[in-house]
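Lest this sound abstract, we think one record worth quoting, the chain in one-letter code, the fold tokenised, each line plainly labelled:

>
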Amino acid sequence: MSQEPGLFQVNVTVKHAILNSQNGTGIRTFVEVFVDSKSAFKTDISPKSWSPSWNCSVSAIVTPYSSIQFIVTHVVKFGPNSQLGESQLDVYPILKLYDGKVASVDHTLSIIKKDVSRGFLVVNFGPLEVDLTMFPPPPVFRDQVVALATGSIASSNTDGLPLSSSQELNLANDQASTSQSIVETVGPRRGRNHPSNAPSSSTTAVTVGSSFWAELLRALFDPSPPFTPETTPRRWGSAAQPNLRLPRSDWTDAAVVHSNRLNAPKFSEDSPLPDGWERRVDPESGRKYFVNHKNCTTQWEDPRERGMDESRPLPPGWEKRYTAAGQRFFIDHNSRTTTFIDPRTGQHAGSLGTLGVPVQYERNFRAKLAYFRAQCTNHLLNGHAKLTISRDGLLEESFQQIQRLPVSDLRKRLCITFLGEEGLDYGGIAREWFLRVSRDFFNPMFGLFEYTGAHYSLQINPASDVANVAHLEYFHFIGRVIGMALFHGRCIDGGFTLAFYKLILGRKACLQDLELVDHDFYQSLTFIRHVISDQAFMRFHGIETDNDVDASDLELYFSGNYRKFDSLQEDELKPGGKDIKVTEANKMEYLKLMVEWRLNRGVTEQTEAFLKGLFEVVEPSWLQVFDERELELLLSGMPELDVEDWRANTVYRKYSPSSKQVVWFWQFVRSLDKEKRARLLQFITGTCHLPLGGFGELMGSNGRQLFCIERTGTEAWLPRSHTCFNRLDLPPYTSFEQLREKLLLAIEETEGFGQE
């Protein structure tokens, strides 16, 4: 087809399977889902069973001609995993069956390998509504409809497998009104490495190439200015579908919106919107949307429903904290009370999801994260990028070796060896290297970065050329390291300002972004904005005041001054700016240019070098799906260590959860402060930061690997860690005091690998 197909969001849930029983108690399995040959997500690994259950969902982007592939994999404890078989679900036949209006429906699919059925997989697909008059059936599907009418239904695969009776029944009879269907699809088996343009004999043999992802990103996350009602953007799909480009900062499917609204507190439509918000109407669909003028974003959801107005600081005397389960609450030190109600919005605070973001965003964030990880996996090159580094010269040797690597090697698997240590890098050493090297180059004493005030966020030091003559080469190196951390799914120790994350994403900063960078400068610009408006208002209405308005003339011009050591530097905000006076008519332009100048003054060359190194590893388009806060979370990991989450995602060898050594261990963990808990986590995993998803998403040498406590040695031994496998060897100590003493000695006095 010459016309680009429309894009739709649909929920896909992998529920459970019934596998052909062989022997033993069962096998451990997981399912990987591909949409048009692109990896969408993986389920968790199930316990041993011949009837495994996952109940994992993803919000997928599909076209009416998409094909969804489910690959069931057997997890082998010692050795490579083996593929049990695969199933395929084509979208167009389902749409045709339900006249384009698909509810949330279960489908039973055959698991096929080498033309042999290995069992059945139950998945849930929907809801999805498509105007089929806009999308004619593909040629292969039309041929099958003709065959169905003549009674000569044959299998669509090349092996000539007949359709099952349940499939004939569902294709022959229109059951659009039913709430559940059983459709067994037998199609061609396509491996994940097959090219997307390979010929296929599937019933919906229309594949989507790279233009699909490019158009998806352009439609969803186009970094253009926020939508205004005066513009008429291009629309996808039917007229009833919302414009995807409208509120891109919080785009979600209708089911999630409906679910959130059902659970939201009730409010009056006449109640005022939070400060800085405006309600508008899309002229095409007539649907209301809301504009947040503070951060220049738009969204469908009413901020009074979801309590989204959280950009303002808390009132004086208030503090925000989190429970051990991640529930957010607020403390009023004035009255010495606690509450779950956000004092800024009056709404229930809600809780954080497993990814460290609010629950209402978690589904969208998972879809974004799955897309980014799929891009990194698809561009991973064979081979290794090997680094041999000493701990004493960690930063300098890392700089020399990383800068010598060709660009292609940056996307190879990283293999690091510390001189004089026996450790083999199956991931743990690389995690520690990212942690330590980022800690070194972020150190303000090195002169490349500086703190932004009390928040301890980092920004580029304008005087970095004085601290280091080769500062531009170092910023190029830092960009490469940050890119490698994103590409390989590692965390760094430190974080930038939100304004800098916006710069990475190519988005414009606003006045609110300046508050955390330079609060005094922010207050000055805020005063300028209000005082000019007040003076203009008084002049227009002829109001007399005690102060002469003309005497309050601020004498501002389109130029900025700053002091660099003993010299005063002056930059024009625009050509001839030092002669252009700031007035009511041009004040917004002045504020916009001044914010941009303040955030970038003296650091343009450093920023360009950093971005050059970063984008040598990750493509800018891969990051466009995230906003600045999500990018910060992706790079810096989870901010808090939840002990209950840690305990719930722990496995034991030669111990049980009720063993006294295990009980003492968790008692020891709870007794530690935040710093020592981070040190303990670093001792076990190689890094003090958690990946997105918390302890349940810890990665080992072969993928996801939970924290493990194993009994080993005698009570005279010190605890040992295996960072590549997230394993702690805990000897059978006879008392809590002995366990505490040995663990503290291990985490505080040992360093490196191969230590006994």
